[in-house]
Every structure is written in structure tokens, then in C-alpha cells.
């Protein structure tokens, strides 16, 4: 694994990232899920090959308090978008796309209004649960109301989830994949659990920006997702694209602003099998007039 790349932000904080793909290829910022990091490998050992096959350049970014990125207390989705804008300027990228997976989804959507953003992809993304009722809040956070959810509580949940994930990775039959997953988890928790917990804190409250995307949007969700339920994908389809989705379809649901892909048999690891297709769709959306 190559050494991490670091940017010192105007605030003095550090932003850590890695890059796959040719320097001249169209750039996509990739925003990882909760308890993941810049080392997340969407299609395992084939991640870099898929990036090359898509003729893309993908910049994987650690969020504040994760991996090598400095903590940012009381951060917001919009403050992270400012960090990403600084990184785009540092890398001399006048135009780019952003793809967010799981907890990275809301972060990616917040970046849709950045100058230079050409398209956004949301993969198995979390929704604005505070707008979806107490039953779903209870399902996602173990408590029905945002007032009952704080950083200390979420750090405990993150630590428990990380322990379960570690045990699962250690029992994987494919050793190469286990090593990738364990390395990613170690980076995600290198600074403790405040960084991962902040994802949950943001998800449990109003997001602070309009959900309709001003750039072409692609949304993917699995109908069998037990981690981020399909209701989240349908919520995003409705509030970002104006689509009322009642069930899966072999063809994407299409709106003027983008597409919603709901795959009935897919779960939260949808990205593992569709990484190349996600890159292709994201770049095609960015290239559209």
C-alpha cells in the first residue's frame, strides 16, 4: 500500500487521501462508509483494475477523525464539502464527480453544489432519518428520537459494531479479502470512535442543505439491504429526484435529474459487485451536456 497523501487545510487540519488511476483520467472523489477509510476496496483486489477499465481517476478521502484526517469537532456535511473543495483546488481539478457509499452518501450529496462538481453517485446511502419517523430512527440508532442520541452513545455503538466487523473479517475464507478489510477497519478506528460516531450524529439530525441535486445524480440501493434499509434509497429517490418508487425494477427509474437503481436481490455490499458499473454511470452523467 502506498504512503498516505496529506493536505493541510486552511484551518490547519489535515486531510488524508489516496489516488488510483491515471493522472489524466476524469476524477471521482470517493467517500467511504462508516467504519471504513480511504483504504476501503470497493471490489476487493480488483478495485484498481476496475478504476483503470473505467478510465477513471478515483481519490479516496478519509473523513475528519478517520484514518489520517484530523478530527473536526462539531463538523457538518457542508463543512466537509468545504474540505473537499480545498482538496480539489490542491489537486488542480476544475471539474470532478463525487460518489458516496453508505454514510458517505449524505457527504457526497452535500458536495453537489460545489463549483466544478459535475455529477454525484449515492450507493447504499443513508437517508435523513429524522424526517422518516421514530420507528426507523429506532431501527437505525436504537433510540427513537434525535434528542436521545449523543456522541457518547454513538461511540459505544461504533465500538461494538467494529468488534463485530473485526470478528467477521477474521473468519473470512478468502485471506486476501480479509487482509484488505482488516487494514481498512484498523485505519477507520486508528483515532478511536469519535470520527465514526460523528457520521451517526449527522445522520440522526436534519442535514442542513436542500436534498435536490443541481447536478446529474445516480442512486443505487439493494432491496435486501439489512444495514441501510431500502426505504432510505426510496426516500432519496423521492426527495432528490422526485420519484415515487414502490418496488424494484430491472430498469432504472428515470427522472429529469438522474436515475434510481433498485436491485431486489442486492444487500449492503452491492458496491462489491457493481463498482465498475457505478464508475461508468458516474462518468457518463458527468459528461452529459
From TrEMBL:
Signal peptide: none annotated. SUPFAM superfamilies: alpha/beta-Hydrolases. Residues 26-110 form the AB hydrolase-1 domain. It holds the Pfam family Abhydrolase_1. InterPro entries: AB_hydrolase (IPR050471), AB_hydrolase_1 (IPR000073), AB_hydrolase_fold (IPR029058). It comes from the Eukaryota. This is AB hydrolase-1 domain-containing protein. It comes from Tetraparma gracilis.
Amino acid at each position: 500500500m502506498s504512503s498516505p497523501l496529506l493536505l493541510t487545510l486552511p484551518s490547519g487540519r489535515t486531510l488524508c487521501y489516496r489516488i488510483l488511476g491515471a493522472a489524466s483520467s476524469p476524477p471521482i472523489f470517493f467517500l467511504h462508509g462508516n467504519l471504513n477509510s480511504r483504504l476501503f476496496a470497493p471490489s476487493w483486489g480488483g478495485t484498481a483494475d476496475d478504476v483503470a477499465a473505467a478510465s477513471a481517476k478515483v481519490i479516496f478521502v478519509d473523513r475528519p477523525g478517520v484514518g489520517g484526517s484530523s478530527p473536526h469537532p462539531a463538523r457538518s456535511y457542508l463543512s466537509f464539502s468545504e474540505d473537499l473543495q480545498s482538496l480539489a483546488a490542491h489537486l488542480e481539478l476544475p471539474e470532478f464527480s463525487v460518489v458516496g457509499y453508505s454514510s458517505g452518501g449524505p457527504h457526497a450529496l452535500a458536495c453537489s453544489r460545489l463549483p466544478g462538481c459535475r455529477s454525484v453517485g449515492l450507493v447504499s446511502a443513508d437517508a435523513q432519518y429524522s424526517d422518516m419517523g421514530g420507528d426507523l430512527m429506532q431501527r437505525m440508532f436504537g433510540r427513537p428520537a434525535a434528542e436521545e442520541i449523543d456522541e457518547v452513545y454513538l461511540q459505544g455503538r461504533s465500538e461494538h459494531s467494529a468488534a463485530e466487523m473485526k470478528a467477521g473479517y477474521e473468519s473470512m475464507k478468502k485471506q486476501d479479502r480479509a487482509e484488505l478489510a482488516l487494514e481498512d477497519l484498523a485505519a477507520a478506528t486508528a483515532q478511536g470512535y469519535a470520527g465514526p460516531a460523528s457520521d451517526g450524529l449527522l445522520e440522526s439530525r436534519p442535514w442542513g442543505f436542500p436534498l435536490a441535486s443541481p447536478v446529474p445524480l445516480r442512486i443505487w440501493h439493494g432491496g435486501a439491504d439489512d444495514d441501510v434499509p431500502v426505504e432510505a434509497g426510496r426516500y432519496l429517490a423521492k426527495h432528490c429526484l422526485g420519484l415515487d418508487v414502490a418496488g424494484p425494477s430491472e430498469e432504472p427509474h428515470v427522472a429529469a435529474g438522474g436515475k434510481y437503481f433498485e436491485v431486489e436481490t442486492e444487500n449492503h455490499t452491492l458496491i462489491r459487485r457493481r463498482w465498475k458499473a457505478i464508475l461508468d454511470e458516474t462518468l457518463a452523467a458527468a459528461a452529459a451536456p
